Structures are given as C-alpha cells and as structure tokens.
C-alpha cells in the first residue's frame, strides 16, 4: 500500500520522531505535546520521559489517508520493551460506539519489528509505555525464572493480552491525569510501573505463550485484520471474505492468526465480545438485555452462558455487585 505518511523512529528515544512529524505535517511540538490538525489528519499526543529509561505517551489519532507506524532501531541501541495499550468505544463513556479497532495490550521487545497501519476515518487511542532493560532491573525484583530468561532473550518476541479491568483502571488514571487542573505528575511514572508489574504477573503465568521470531509481515497483516475486520461487534466476520482478501485458505488464515493471538479468528472475536460485555455492565447503566442486543448476541441467554463459561459467574452477579 502507498502511505500518505510513515511515522518511524527509535521508541526509547522518540523526541526526534515527534519533531519530525511536527515539521513534516506543519504541527506543533513543545517538548511534551504534539498537535497536528490538517485536512487529512488529527494528532494529539502527550509524551513524558522518566530517568531517560521510560517514555510514556498518550495519543489520540484520526487519519483520513493511510498512515503507518513503524518501530525502528539499530543493533547499537540498548534493549527496550514496548507496551502498546489500545482503548476505544465505551472506554470513554461513548455507549453508542461499536468500533473497538485497537483494543488490547501488545507487548514486544526491541528486536521485534512492529508496524501498525492505522484505520481510516476512525479515532484510535493508545497509551504506550516504552522502558529500558535497566529500568526493569531497577524496579522489578530480580529472580531466576522463565520471565528472567525471556527478558534477556535477544530473539524477537511478541505477546497479546486482553485489556482486563485492572489494567484498564490504571490506563484511565493515566488518561484523566492529562487534565492540568487536577494533574498529579508522579502518576505518569507510578501508574505505568504498576501496569508493568501487572504484565509481569501475567508473564509468569504465560511465559511459554510468548511468540518468538514472528515474521514482521505476518504480524502486520494479522494486526490489520484484527483492527479493521474484528472491530465491529455488531457484525460477525466472514471468513470466506477474509480468506479471499488475504489470499489464504481459511485454515491457513486461522493458523497464522492463532500463532499471534493464541486463538482462531472467530473464537478470538467472541472472546472480545464477552470482554466488552463485562466492560459495559461495569461502566454503563445499560441492562444486560440491551448489552446483548448491542453486541449482536443471538439472545441474552446465550450471552449469559458464554459470559459464565469465561468468567465463572453470570453477568447478573456482576450487575448486582455494581449496584
């Protein structure tokens, strides 16, 4: 694809990238906030640096022409790790939104080539936490485990995590902290450290589930599939159409997708819907029946059955706890 613009650079030293974007797209960069507004793109990105070992950014992006993000580093750069957390839809209280294109947590090391093709005509929001190996060693207790081996593994690796309620609450705290009237600056440091700690706990449970040596083209294509074709919870993806679009048999398409996201396409899609049902029960005043209809479940009984299978309790239990 021909891109209108490509954003790239070393993620642990992003200042140069912000300056270049501001210059190329006639925006403004003041050392903390990047603002670009023109006929085909809106960018509002905030970046905070701590100890030269961690960069935290909060970005709201809307593109009308194709734009690609590409991580870029040299072998001489120090190792780093990237947490990209996507959030959309009901996360900001928009109960009528059905677009959840980048929802989830993407974790990879600096040897993994990572590209994101941003969706057209869709607002997407990201919190990025980029931290060095030295920061991890300073703030995360060292012990000999599978995680230690993984952190020091020089092979490219990647892992997707769903956006659970604990991480979501911390992300909300980071985003709300952008309001300068009620800002607590240290939150931009402590909340990301808490997220790193939660991811470390997940890593302990799923150390063998990390994907090593994923081909960058496979990762890019499957990210595109997830973001552009699994984002509308009111319409189940058509595997035959996806098979034709990507030039793969359905079985190969499922196999490649599963190699990155742990589940075949429809199973992953249904899990996303159940997790969104949890969010809407927890965050909105909708009835369980309304949520079932909005997310296009066959009926409320079917949604309740799937919900209980996934969480171990019925959606009505969560609703009662909220009340």
Automatic annotation (TrEMBL):
Signal peptide (residue range): none
Keyword match ATP-binding: no
Tagged with keyword Transferase: no
Sequence ranges assigned to domain HTH araC/xylS-type in this UniProt record: 223-321
Domain of life from the UniProt record: Bacteria
GO function terms (MF aspect): DNA-binding transcription factor activity; sequence-specific DNA binding
Protein name, per record: Helix-turn-helix transcriptional regulator
One Pfam family hit: HTH_18
Keywords: Transcription, Transcription regulation
């Amino acid at each position: 694809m021909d891109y209108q613009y490509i954003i790239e650079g070393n993620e642990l030293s992003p200042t140069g990238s912000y300056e270049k974007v501001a210059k190329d797209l006639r925006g403004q960069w003041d050392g903390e906030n990047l603002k670009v507004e023109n006929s085909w793109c809106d960018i509002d990105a905030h970046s905070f640096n701590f100890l030269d070992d961690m960069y935290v950014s909060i970005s709201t992006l809307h593109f009308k022409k194709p734009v690609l993000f590409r991580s870029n580093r040299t072998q001489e750069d120090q190792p780093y790790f990237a947490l990209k957390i996507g959030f959309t839809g009901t996360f900001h209280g928009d109960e009528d939104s059905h677009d959840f294109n980048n929802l989830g947590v993407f974790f990879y090391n600096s040897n993994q080539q990572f590209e994101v093709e941003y969706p057209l005509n869709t607002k997407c929001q990201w919190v990025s936490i980029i931290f060095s190996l030295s920061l991890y060693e300073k703030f995360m207790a060292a012990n000999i485990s599978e995680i230690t081996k993984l952190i020091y593994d020089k092979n490219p690796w990647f892992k997707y995590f769903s956006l659970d309620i604990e991480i979501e609450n911390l992300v909300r705290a980071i985003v709300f902290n952008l309001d300068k009237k009620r800002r607590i600056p240290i939150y931009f440091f402590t909340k990301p450290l808490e997220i790193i700690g939660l991811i470390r706990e997940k890593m302990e449970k799923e150390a063998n589930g990390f994907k090593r040596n994923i081909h960058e083209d496979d990762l890019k294509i499957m990210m595109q599939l997830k973001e552009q074709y699994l984002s509308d919870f009111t319409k189940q993806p058509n595997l035959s159409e996806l098979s034709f679009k990507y030039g793969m048999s359905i079985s190969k398409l499922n196999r490649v997708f599963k190699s990155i996201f742990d589940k075949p396409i429809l199973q992953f899609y249904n899990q996303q819907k159940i997790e969104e049902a949890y969010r809407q029960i927890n965050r909105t005043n909708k009835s369980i029946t309304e949520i079932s209809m909005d997310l296009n479940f066959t009926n409320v009984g079917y949604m309740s059955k799937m919900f209980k299978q996934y969480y171990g309790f019925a959606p009505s239990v969560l609703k009662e706890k909220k009340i």
